[in-house]
Amino acid sequence: MTTHPAVSATASVTAYWTFLDGPLGQLLLTADESGALTSLSVPGQKGGRSVEQGWRHDPGPFRAAEAQLAAYFAGELTEFRLELRSTGTDFRQRVWDALDSVPYGETTTYGQIAARIGAPRAAVRAVGGAIGANPLLVLRPCHRVIGADGSLTGYAGGLDRKRHLLGLEGVPLTP
């Protein structure tokens, strides 16, 4: 996965959008002028994106994402190789970078992410907020973060989708 430096939260970087159908529902993908993906949202997502005036509907910039997502959902791809560009604070960028390092089929906890970025234990709530603000669901694997007790906790796309993604990756789930 290729990432790019943070872009100012006030910068307007989205130029293109398209919808892709998948097992999580109709996915909304957005990309900037260079073709780097800026978001992947699912229907009903807490804080998810919606198409804005001035964006151009064009499936062209999303061909690689479409192929890789199809392979991922078919159980044939374990690591995305796409250009991603996120907009967020330095803290959020550090959290999102830590998410990118959680391997396919494995889970981590909010506390482990905090430790990985050098944040104090007291920062776990802030880490959770940054994870919840992840604009690139599925591609940046926030679904792999679980509670310290092993429970499935918060997911902007809903716990059923989180359960689906972890099951797809072969993560054993407790009922």
Automatic annotation (TrEMBL):
<comment type="similarity">
    <text>Belongs to the MGMT family.</text>
</comment>
<keyword id="KW-0808">Transferase</keyword>
<protein>
    <recommendedName>
        <fullName>Methylated-DNA--protein-cysteine methyltransferase</fullName>
        <ecNumber>2.1.1.63</ecNumber>
    </recommendedName>
</protein>
<dbReference type="GO" id="GO:0032259">
    <property type="term" value="P:methylation"/>
</dbReference>
<dbReference type="InterPro" id="IPR008332">
    <property type="entry name" value="MethylG_MeTrfase_N"/>
</dbReference>
<dbReference type="GO" id="GO:0003908">
    <property type="term" value="F:methylated-DNA-[protein]-cysteine S-methyltransferase activity"/>
</dbReference>
<dbReference type="InterPro" id="IPR014048">
    <property type="entry name" value="MethylDNA_cys_MeTrfase_DNA-bd"/>
</dbReference>
<keyword id="KW-0963">Cytoplasm</keyword>
<feature type="domain" description="Methylguanine DNA methyltransferase ribonuclease-like">
    <location>
        <begin position="16"/>
        <end position="85"/>
    </location>
</feature>
<keyword id="KW-0227">DNA damage</keyword>
<dbReference type="GO" id="GO:0006307">
    <property type="term" value="P:DNA alkylation repair"/>
</dbReference>
<dbReference type="InterPro" id="IPR036631">
    <property type="entry name" value="MGMT_N_sf"/>
</dbReference>
<keyword id="KW-0489">Methyltransferase</keyword>
<dbReference type="GO" id="GO:0005737">
    <property type="term" value="C:cytoplasm"/>
</dbReference>
<comment type="function">
    <text>Involved in the cellular defense against the biological effects of O6-methylguanine (O6-MeG) and O4-methylthymine (O4-MeT) in DNA. Repairs the methylated nucleobase in DNA by stoichiometrically transferring the methyl group to a cysteine residue in the enzyme. This is a suicide reaction: the enzyme is irreversibly inactivated.</text>
</comment>
<dbReference type="Pfam" id="PF01035">
    <property type="entry name" value="DNA_binding_1"/>
</dbReference>
<dbReference type="Pfam" id="PF02870">
    <property type="entry name" value="Methyltransf_1N"/>
</dbReference>
<dbReference type="InterPro" id="IPR036217">
    <property type="entry name" value="MethylDNA_cys_MeTrfase_DNAb"/>
</dbReference>
<dbReference type="InterPro" id="IPR036388">
    <property type="entry name" value="WH-like_DNA-bd_sf"/>
</dbReference>
<dbReference type="InterPro" id="IPR023546">
    <property type="entry name" value="MGMT"/>
</dbReference>
<feature type="active site" description="Nucleophile; methyl group acceptor">
    <location>
        <position position="142"/>
    </location>
</feature>
<feature type="domain" description="Methylated-DNA-[protein]-cysteine S-methyltransferase DNA binding">
    <location>
        <begin position="90"/>
        <end position="171"/>
    </location>
</feature>
<keyword id="KW-0234">DNA repair</keyword>
